[in-house]
Amino acid sequence: EVRLVESGGGLVQPGGSLRLSCADSGFYFSLYTMAWVRQAPGKGLEWVTSIDSGSSNTYYADSVKGRFTISRDNAKKMVYLQMNNLRPDDTDMYYCAACSSGSCSVIPDVNVWGQGTQVTVSS
After folding, report:
1. Do 21 and 77 touch, CB atoms closer than 8 A?
2. How far is Cα 13 from Cα 35, in angstroms, rounded to an integer?
3. How far is CA 116 from each of CA 15, 57, 66, 75, 82, rounded to the nearest angstrom?
4. DSSP 8-state class, residue 61
5. Residues 29-69: pLDDT tens digits?
6. Which range has the worst mean pLDDT, 2-6, 7-11, 75-79, 90-94?
7. In this structure, what DSSP letter does residue 30 have?
């Protein structure tokens, strides 16, 4: 069973960078497609990016393409989100998500959620 714990959030100035990490304590991490999903207060969930089980394919929302990079290390059961050139509208709670099937680019695909880590972009 997959258990996800995010870390790495914080306060950063516009134009800055952060690296989020997500650790899985389950047994089947390498079989899951992993994703990052974010949510602003009072707003719905927004899919950000996903990566398939073998790191062969990655997908990005248009709003983050060219600025964010998703990666994973199956041996360490970790998934990462490198965020560069951050903007104030990137301010959100960021959730790590795992999907047993599909591209993990739509919310109903998600089987397991982390507890979230807050990212605030402000000067």
Report:
1. no
2. 25
3. 22, 24, 23, 23, 16
4. -
5. 889 999 999 999 899 999 999 999 888 899 999 999 999 99
6. 2-6
7. G
- At residue 24, φ and ψ (nearest 5 deg) are -115, 135
| DSSP sequence for 100-122 | SSS-S-SGGG--EE---EEEEE-
Tell me the per-residue pLDDT of 85-100, one tens digit each, with 9 for 90 and over: 999 999 999 999 999 8
- How many whole angstroms separate alpha carbon 47 and alpha carbon 123? 25
The answer for residues whose C-beta is within 8 angstroms of residue 55's C-beta and 6 or more apart is 71, 72, 74
The alpha-helical segments, DSSP class H, found in the chain are none
Q: Which region, left, alpha or beta, applies to residue 102 given φ > 0 means left and ψ of -120 to 50 means alpha?
A: left
